Amino acid sequence: MPKFLKFIGLVAVALFCLGAAVQPAQAGTIILEGSDAIGFHAVLGNAGAITYRDQAWTAIGGSDPRPIAVIGTDVSGGQSVGSGTHPVMDFATLATAGPLSNYVAVYFLATFGCCTEDDTLPAGHEADISAYLAAGGTVMIENYIGGAAWDFAVGTGGAGNAHVGGIGGGAPNEGSISGCDDGEMVTADGMANGFTQPPVMGCWTHQGYDQGFFGPLGFTHNFFDSPPDYTTANPPGPWSSLLSSGKTVTGTTPEPSSIALLCIGSLSLIGYGVRRRMRAA
Question: Which of 46, 116, 229, 264 is the most exposed place for a label (fewest CB within 10 A)?
Answer without folding.
Answer: 264
